[in-house]
Amino acid sequence: MAEAYVVDAVRTPVGRRGGALSALHSADLAAHVIGALLRRTGVDPGAVDDVILGCCDTIGSQAGDIARTAWLVAGLPEHVPGVTVDRQCGSGQQAVHFAAQAVLSRTADLIVAGGVQNMSAIPISAAMTVGGPYGFSTPFAESPGWRARYGDQEVSQFRAAEMIAEKWRLSREDMERYAWRSHRRALAAIDAGRFKGEIEPVGDFDTDACPRRDTSPERMAGLPPLVEGGRITAALASPVCDAASVLLIASERALEEHGLTPRARIHHLSVRGDDPVWMLTGPIPATRHALRRAGMSIDDIDLFEVNEAFASVVPAWTAETGADPDKVNVNGGGIALGHPIGATGARLMTTLLAELERTGGRYGLQTMCEGGGQANVTILERL
Fold it and tell me: Which of 233, 249, 308, 315 has the greatest number of beta carbons closer than 10 A?
């Protein structure tokens, strides 16, 4: 039976909006981690079958198939192709899924997969403004077919976050305590040096910049809501940021041919959809589906990475799945570390793998909410 392995994984530090990575062209940002991955593994670049990168808002400096461009910018062989994937916030995770599926189908042996996003240069949802103006912030909701199915209503991640808080009875204070814990966990991980091995510095920039040492539930309480009369504030949402991350996915044959030692096996991968208006609830049914397909229970998983797009998402997921909160986002999540959309899926997987190794855990599950009400799930087995 074919297997897909993770040989190595690397990422940049996550830079704040307008910070250390903001002036770096997205292709150069991705090229930086691609080059680092190849140096760390010692693999022959010419043996790579494909490069698959997740990226959203592929306009401007992120247009033109950035996976291909980044490989070439890194000075690597021209015969190696590249393709760019957009599954919204799950783009980087989906890139790894496509790489693993190519290996599992025996149509490829060695693939670089991950994601990149410079949100400072290309603002979130910038691609949706092209060709406007539209009545909604999500132009697809202007479609007559869409309106016939879902009605004339706003489709917004902010609205969805508020709806989740309301349904799962999460008060603003509950979410502020959750967000504060995310920052404390991230800062503890940084101070303990837990991210050092997974990060490839960019010049002198070698530490995630988004976690805030000066925040507290009391300070968060003074912020205005993002939606009038709502509960979600900027402190309860993942910050705008910049980053890139990639993994090397290999077949058993590639391991043997190139003398590679894998760090993990991809035990399961899947993706599911949910109500696109609620949008952020996808990880709940996706996790149930993944565990059922894998023949596992929630208690079989040692660690979880569930993307913190908003402070309402993970508490709702935890309540519905029964996951132990002490195993979820143990080194902080997107609220503290940032959510560089196209890169986040690969960043989470890189961090999950390192933490499994540090703690001796066997299985790690990663999932994230995505535009359109979708959610990817990956289960890694540490080797």
Answer: 249
Q: Cα(314)–Cα(369) distance, rounded to whole angstroms? A: 10
Domain for residue 104, yes or no? yes
> In terms of DSSP bridges, do strands 82-85 and 363-370 run parallel, antiparallel, or are they unpaired?
unpaired
**290: helix, coil or strand?**
helix
Q: Pick the catalytic residue from 55, 89, 210, 241.
A: 89
Tell me which of 32, 267, 268, 339 is the catalytic residue.
339
Tens of pLDDT, residues 171-188: 999 999 999 999 999 999
- What is the Cα–Cα distance from 33 to 36, expressed in whole angstroms? 5
For the chain, the domain total comes to 1
To the question of pTM greater than 0.85 for the whole model, the response is: yes
pLDDT digits (tens, 9 = 90+) for 194-250: 999 999 999 999 999 999 999 999 999 999 999 889 999 999 999 999 999 999 999
Quick check: is 247 in a domain?
yes
Distance in angstroms (rounded) separating the CA atoms of residues 216 and 214:
7
Q: φ, ψ for residue 34 (rounded to 5)?
A: -60, -45
Is position 89 annotated as part of the catalytic site? yes
Residue 117 located in a structural domain: yes
The model's confidence at residue 340, banded by pLDDT at 50, 70 and 90, is very high
Which domain range does residue 61 map to? Answer: 4-123+240-258
Does residue 205 form part of some domain?
no
* CATH number of the domain that residue 92 is part of: 3.40.47.10
